[in-house]
Amino acid sequence: MVSTYVTSSLILRILLVYLMVSRIAFAHDANEASAYTVQEIAEGNFVHEGNFPPQSLENRGDIANIGFIVGEKCVAVIDVGSSLHVGSMLKAAIQRVTRLPICAVIITHVHPDHLLGLNAFTKDDSITVYGHHRLPKQIRTRSRFYLESLEQYLGAGNTADHAIDPSLVTPVNGLLSIDLGNRVIELKSWDYAHTDHDLSVTDIKTGTFWAGDIVFSEHVPILDSNIRQYNAVLEELQKLDVQHYVVGHGSLDRPWDVLISEQRRYFRVLLREVRAAIVNDISLMDAVNTVGWTERDRWHNFDMYHRRNVTTSYTDLEWED
Amino acid sequence: MNFVKRILTFIGASLLFCQLALATPFPEPDHSSIPEWIMIKQLMFGEREIRDGSDDILALYLNTKLDDSSTVPIMVNALMDQTEDKYIKTLYLVIDRNPIPTAGVFKFKPEAGRVKLETRLRFEKFSFIRAIVETNTGDLYMDQRWVQVAGGCSAPSGKNANDPSLGKMRFRMDDQIRLNEPNLVQFQIKHPNESTLASDLEPGYAARFIDKVAVEFNGKSIMSGDINFSLSDNPIFKFYFSPQAEGVLSVRAEDTHDTIFTDSVEIGTDKR
Ligand SMILES: [Zn+2]
Fold first, then answer.
1. How much is the ipTM here?
2. Cα B189 to Cα B210: distance, rounded to the nearest angstrom
3. Rounded to an integer, what distance in angstroms lies between the CA atom of residue A226 and that of residue A193?
4. How confident is the model over B107-154, as pLDDT tens digits?
5. What's the gap in Å between the CA of A180 and the closest CA on chain B?
6. B residues 119-178 near A, CB within 8 Å?
7. Per-residue confidence at B174, pLDDT binned at 50, 70, 90?
8. B104 inside domain
9. What value, to the nearest 5°, has the Cα angle with vertex A171 and ends A166 and A177?
10. Residue B11, in any domain of the structure
11. Fewest Cβ atoms closer than 10 Å to its Cβ: which of A204, B94, B208, B256?
């Protein structure tokens, strides 16, 4: 009897949320496309600056910096947003900038805010989708969750239309150059950085480095791999000659050196304090609430992602010799 | 019903970087009326009464803010001493809505001095975690917490069962062991402890997880557990034991692929 009551009141509550979701979704559609702006951060390199995560009904999943590079022959898209809605808006923005066809879509990594808008582009057979050689496996194992969460967070009723076919991905292992017509871009696969399958893009002509989520600006870095190797990647990035950059989250007008050194400082604190916690027998339960919290005021969304970064580092470093 | 089920499943928080926050968290339901629990309770304990033990028998701790459904540290502390007359014989960890709700069944001895268990768990859905103890007199006591993370069992395991260090163990205890009083000891086994739900397992492959651990001191059992993939990868255990002499602490673990892992450590009263 009691449990029946609980269940039915729960259904009611869920139904209410669901109805709210679909109504808000409708209200947004009318005048949003023109509000989706891109800026040319370097000659031929266009970026849309997304809101800060997490995704919500208000931002409709527009939470990542995504964009495109225009050559003389065709266009390369770099990341496609959280949903078909965001992907279509990016596509419309491209068509406002150029009439050249899109020849390449590059996915920097599997996270949904970079990936799930892909089908807005793939109906066209002349488009090649590029990803890290580990991306197809990540799509296979994660996309079910991502599709379910899409419904949960954005109220997208057409989740099935968002399903990504992993066999579409042309795998990149090492370096790969693509000529967009008098403009060569270079794709590079990284080993363990933000994830175990990050792909970066460099526009050689302007020295513009598209970092995906390997580098964060203002937003707390997120660790979905191994902190020691990620840290080594940042050292490598610091040596690059970067004239312009795009990072997945946060503002794009801060000096590149500052971004890298801030992130390295955060990792140094994490590494040092996690190792100290392990040596001093501070349990993981306590460490997530004590390690690295001096960094709290320096980052957006710290409370949301930092504990997880501690967990990821701790469970790795506790096996260090 | 399917929709309700789906939304309650609330999906892989562990995978959803960049979109973690849930706008309205589900309020804590009444722990005694959870349908899964009513069934589990009947199956495990029949008609026996389970009393609230949170005042004087046991306390279950975990962080209120959880962010990683595949690695949730928990701690169970007995609030009573182990004596020959009255002691905690068995500790059950139950996660109502996990694929195998009985996450662990641990046996303790009166000689432990005091019962404590720290470990790390996976949560597949929003659920209560319950710590239930059974005393030597056959009484059952419980403490429970409501947990709002999900997806921990179906997250890709990400760990490799072919890791050359599979089965490697790490022990940890104070440098100075004190005789005849409770000393904390910790051991951890390098093992992916694969969940049968892990989304990166090949179809038809039987998930490889540890299902038995046994700890002995000088050949006498001090703690043992029947466990499964509700425990996180690289399972870790921390508990008390009260040695009456110096000696050898040994661990034996067995996984579902019939591999046995053993290791031991000498325990002295001066330096380890
Ligand atoms: Zn990401």
1. 0.90
2. 9
3. 7
4. 999 988 999 999 999 999 999 999 999 999 999 999 999 999 888 888
5. 31
6. 120, 151, 154, 156, 165, 170, 172
7. confident
8. yes
9. 140
10. no
11. A204
Q: Which fold has domain A39-254?
A: Metallo-beta-lactamase; Chain A (3.60.15)
Q: At CA A90, angle to CA A44 and CA A106, rounded to 5? A: 65
CA-closest candidate to residue A294, choices A253, A265, A256, A252: A265
From ligand 1's centre to the CA of B264, what distance in Å? Answer: 42
Give the model's pLDDT for residue A123.
85
Please give the sequence-ordered ranges of beta strands (E in DSSP) within chain B, or none if there are none.
50-52, 58-61, 72-81, 88-95, 102-108, 114-121, 127-135, 140-147, 169-173, 183-189, 210-217, 220-227, 236-241, 247-255, 260-267
Please give the backbone phi and psi of residue B239, each rounded to the nearest 5 degrees, phi first.
-160, 175
Size of interface A-B (CB pairs under 8 A): 124
User: Helices B2-9 and A135-154 meet at what angle, rounded to 10?
Assistant: 120
Residue B259 sits in a domain whose CATH number is: 2.60.40.10
> Distance between CA atoms of B207 and B203, rounded to whole angstroms?
10
Give the number of other CB atoms < 10 A from CB of residue A94: 21
Q: Give, as one character, the DSSP assignment of residue A221.
A: P
CA atoms within 13 A of residue B253's CA, in its CB half-sphere: 26
Question: Is there a domain that residue B137 lies in?
Answer: yes
Shortest distance between the Cα of A207 and any Cα of chain B, in A, equals 28
Cα(A230)–Cα(A251) distance, rounded to whole angstroms? 22
For B230, the domain range is 27-267
Considering the domain boundaries, does residue B7 fall inside one?
Answer: no
Q: What is the pTM of this model?
A: 0.88
pLDDT tens digits for range A230-280: 999 999 999 999 999 999 999 999 999 999 999 999 999 999 999 999 999
| Separation of alpha carbons A318 and A275, rounded Å | 8
Q: In this predicted structure, what is the pLDDT of residue A175?
A: 98
Inter-chain CB proximity A284 and B61 less than 8 Å: no
| Ranges under pLDDT 50 in chain A | 1-31
Number of domains chain B is built from = 1
